[in-house]
Amino acid sequence: MRAPAPRWAAELNGATLEAARAAIPQGLVDAFEHVGEIQLHVHRDYLVAALTALRDTPGLEYQQLMDIAGVDYPDRGEERFEVVYCLLSLTRNHRLHVHVAASEDTPVPTVTDLWPVAGWYEREVYDMYGVLFAGNRDLRRILTDYGFRGHPQRKDFPLTGFVEMRYSEEAKRVVYEPVKLAQDFRTFDFTSPWEGAEYVLPGDEKGAALPEAKGAPTPLNADAIRKADDNQSATKPAQAPSEPYAKKDATSTAQTGAGNPHPHATPKPSDPDVVPGKGGQNQ
In this structure, are residues 52 and 72 in contact, taking their beta carbons and an 8 Å threshold? Predict the structure, then answer.
């Protein structure tokens, strides 16, 4: 029985690079480790042979094709696209990426003969980026709608698109129309509401105060106005003892009546059934 997979897959990066260079003698442009993962850059003419070697070579055994991703680099010139094959080795608990450069007119060989699931992945890359795959017998769009123009994941594709879809109440069906932006440009105000905007809003001119003459007194603030009102308002004594702050308070503890019997109090009647004894009540 073979040894179990390592706990940390990064421990296999060094051995994987050596095994990959030995298994792919032709078409390997570059091989290196980046962010803890192995990247193999292969020429598209040797793509099928390289992926077959990675799948069938003992010590590599990347049995599963997990995904095919596309990347757009407009600054690279003609070969602006990259097709990335994400492989997984269940035997070794390890992953690696195979990168292939591609252009809009040069197709990439299909790998549906190695992994049939690649047919759907290649359709996604074609739909989003426009990369062609030679040998794919069902290369058509898979994510966008029928009659869609362009490829949405390209960097030069407009964010608004070209066609918008809506439901028409008049036609009682979904209609397609060219995109119409009612407001092409907008001015966003990021000024703090506590500081106020620099421009004049509609209606602000009604409350605008006239400029004061030079040397005019400074207007009073809220605290000054409140203090002035307190000084001018006369204190009014309470009219009845029931009003708040009009009751008389005791000036000493002798006037509180503590410990004095009530003037109309009577002695409590004795209970003949209760006879105190030595052991306590009712004993």
Answer: no
Give dist(CA 121, CA 127) in Å, integer: 10
Signed CA dihedral, 16, 107, 153, 65: sign only: negative
**Structure tokens given for 29:** 């442009």
Euclidean distance between CA atoms 43 and 34, whole angstroms: 19
- Report how far residue 116's alpha carbon sits from residue 268's, in angstroms, rounded to the nearest whole number: 105
**Each residue's pLDDT tens digit, 41-72:** 999 999 999 999 999 999 899 999 999 999 99
Sequence-distant (6+) residues with CB within 8 A of 215 are: none
The DSSP line for 164-229 is: EEEEETTTTEEEEEE---S-S--------TTT--SSPPTTGGGGPPPPPPTTPPPPP-HHHHHHHH
